[in-house]
Q: What sequence folds into this?
């Protein structure tokens, strides 16, 4: 971990494959003159690059889980190589594959620019890969900015559309403010401990909290306040990416104004990457070692200065506010894309509940729900895209009579919406069950209240989801002729609806895979420069601590 080696490149193979695909896509966009051939060949190239990258991530995961390869960090500790990162990389590749397919079907994107569009889409995926592996504040910032800056361009991809330009402008303004706040929070953390590596920050904070702070030049009463400000500001940057209250204001306008294929991708890809990054930051900096091979993943294991904030209460309040604001704001929406944007905010609140508990079961629930959320939410956006392409609108009245005009599409939409609500026997029910169960397992009043707020919000969401179902099946169509959406849309929506149905009945293999992958890299204990001024440095561990996993799942 002290320098560069060619082994680092082998462990970075998923990212390298993606980067090579992006370069070839840019070259192909320039060299292929025929728009039809360009769309066909570059789509195939993008899909092959994503599948190769996912295969490389699966291979690395198998090496660590099945063959006992030690977890490590490469490029001087900037990038962690562990099973949880590989799990998220496979998920991000799958999300981007669906994003490529829906973009291929869309009428909003011109054929002559598909090469650069795919290159930008895969560049976002590359940034999401780095977000899942970031082991240092510098890499956290670079990965987040790569995803954000390219997303700004994608939101405004339709240059002659005023709504698209407005979406890009609002995205840039909010993103710039959030990035500045996050950088300031990172600078405070660095100032306290003198390092940017996540686990080293944890070691430094533990040392400082138990040592005479004045010897390090930090008044004892100032230290908790600095921690509160630093963690809050870093959370602002990540919270903006996952669109939690009060950092959600950009989301509805950006979702509505962006090209619909990118909106579907944006609603699941960067959001999942944001939660992966939140896992990295919270566990790396605020969860102390358990003394054994992993972390003590429990609210009582959060560092004392974090509990004194009080961190669980603050995150719980944000989660409750996020799901409530998202669901209530979705009720009056007549634009279905905008309604799904507020729905996406509400689901960020459900997912944030897992961070209130920070137990192994909660982390399993968060990862499991992200997989489920991907298929059902991007499926709903795909139906909206199909309707928009054929009717020219995405308002609620454009869905009138869809059950008669395109019955397969309407049935798939109902499946997605009921699953987003969390009704059995669909996958969304299982995902929410895991989340709620992880919260109530704490068996304390605050956690029961939070779970009840989530249940009530799920019931509220049924109302606005069923407004779409009512328009499709209980309202006379504007036109009587069938809606000719084409075979491609039927194939994609069916391919997304099937796992929503299957995982609602048989989810054990996915659950086991996620449980096995809950292993995080932990660096040896090395005292940071600031902390070293107060206490002697302990001897470094001989082998990095390999896992954060439930009993029986450590390798």
A:
């Amino acid at each position: 971990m002290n320098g560069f080696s060619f082994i680092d490149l082998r462990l970075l193979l998923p990212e390298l494959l993606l980067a090579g695909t992006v370069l070839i896509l840019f070259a192909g966009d320039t060299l292929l003159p025929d728009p039809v051939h360009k769309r066909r060949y570059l789509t195939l190239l993008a899909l092959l690059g994503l599948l190769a990258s996912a295969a490389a991530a699966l291979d690395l995961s198998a090496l660590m889980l099945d063959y006992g390869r030690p977890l490590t960090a490469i490029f001087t500790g900037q990038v962690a190589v562990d099973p949880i990162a590989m799990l998220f990389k496979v998920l991000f590749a799958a999300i981007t594959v669906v994003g490529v397919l829906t973009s291929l079907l869309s009428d909003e994107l011109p054929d002559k620019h598909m090469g650069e569009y795919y290159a930008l889409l895969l560049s976002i995926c590359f940034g999401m890969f780095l977000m899942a592996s970031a082991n240092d504040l510098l890499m956290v910032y670079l990965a987040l900015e790569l995803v954000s800056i390219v997303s700004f361009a994608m939101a405004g991809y339709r240059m002659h559309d005023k709504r698209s330009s407005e979406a890009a402008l609002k995205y840039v303004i909010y993103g710039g403010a959030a990035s500045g706040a996050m950088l300031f929070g990172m600078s405070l953390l660095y100032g306290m401990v003198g390092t940017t590596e996540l686990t080293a920050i944890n070691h430094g904070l533990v040392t400082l909290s138990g040592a005479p702070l004045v010897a390090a030049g930090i008044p004892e009463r100032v230290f908790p306040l600095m921690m509160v400000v630093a963690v809050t500001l870093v959370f602002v940057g990540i919270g903006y990416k996952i669109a939690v209250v009060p950092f959600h204001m950009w989301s509805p306008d950006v979702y509505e104004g962006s090209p619909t294929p990118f909106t579907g991708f944006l609603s699941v890809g960067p959001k999942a990457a944001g939660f992966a990054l939140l896992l990295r930051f919270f566990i790396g900096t605020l969860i102390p070692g358990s003394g054994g091979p992993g972390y003590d993943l429990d609210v009582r294991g959060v560092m004392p200065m974090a509990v004194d904030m009080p961190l669980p209460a603050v995150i719980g309040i944000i989660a409750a506010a996020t799901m409530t604001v998202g669901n209530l704001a979705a009720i009056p929406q007549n634009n279905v894309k905008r309604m799904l944007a507020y729905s996406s905010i509400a689901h960020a609140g459900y997912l944030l509940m897992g961070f209130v508990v920070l137990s192994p079961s909660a982390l399993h629930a968060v990862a499991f729900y992200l997989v489920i959320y991907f298929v059902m939410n991007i499926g709903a956006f795909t139906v909206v895209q199909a309707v928009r392409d054929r009717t020219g609108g995405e308002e609620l009245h454009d869905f009138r009579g869809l059950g008669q005009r395109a019955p397969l599409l309407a049935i798939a939409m109902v499946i997605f919406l009921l699953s987003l609500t969390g009704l059995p026997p669909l996958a969304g029910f299982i995902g929410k069950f895991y989340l709620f169960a992880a919260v109530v397992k704490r068996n304390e009043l605050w956690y029961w209240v939070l779970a009840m707020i989530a249940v009530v919000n799920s019931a509220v969401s049924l109302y606005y989801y069923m407004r779409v179902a009512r328009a499709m099946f209980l309202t006379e169509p504007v036109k009587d002729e069938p809606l000719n959406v084409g075979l491609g849309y039927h194939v994609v929506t069916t391919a997304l609806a099937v796992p929503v149905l299957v995982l609602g009945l048989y989810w054990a293999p996915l659950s086991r895979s996620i449980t096995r992958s809950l292993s995080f890299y932990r660096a040896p204990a090395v005292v940071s420069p600031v902390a070293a001024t107060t206490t002697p440095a302990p001897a470094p561990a001989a082998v990095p601590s390999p896992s954060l996993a439930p009993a029986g799942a450590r390798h």
In short: Residues 310-516 form one domain. The longest strand covers residues 72-74. The two ends are 21 Å apart (CA to CA). Strands lie at 72-74, 79-81.
